[in-house]
Write a structure and sequence with these properties.
The protein is α+β, with helices and mostly antiparallel strands. The chain is 39% helix and 27% strand. The protein has one domain.
Length: 75
């Protein structure tokens, strides 16, 4: 499976399709005999769920940074 992300305007699509993608980034994926074009809403959303997590990693990170700040500045 091959995949590439690029600006939609770089594609030469018929108007019936191009207006849907105007101003967006699209991902083009080759799956066997088919080519699928989908809009990429956000790089963060595109990678969401890529790694195993319980969903609270950011919260724990921010808590640790707050503790470090308090230890460093004595607040």
């Amino acid at each position: 499976m091959t995949s590439v992300v690029l600006q939609a305007e770089a594609l030469n699509l018929p108007e019936i399709f191009s207006f849907k993608f105007r101003g967006k980034k699209v991902e083009i994926v080759e799956r066997g005999d088919a080519i699928v074009i989908t809009p990429v809403k956000s790089p963060i959303e595109a990678l969401h769920g890529m790694f195993e997590s319980d969903g609270h990693v950011v919260d724990r990170y921010l808590e640790r940074k707050q503790v470090e700040k308090e230890l460093e500045y004595g607040n």
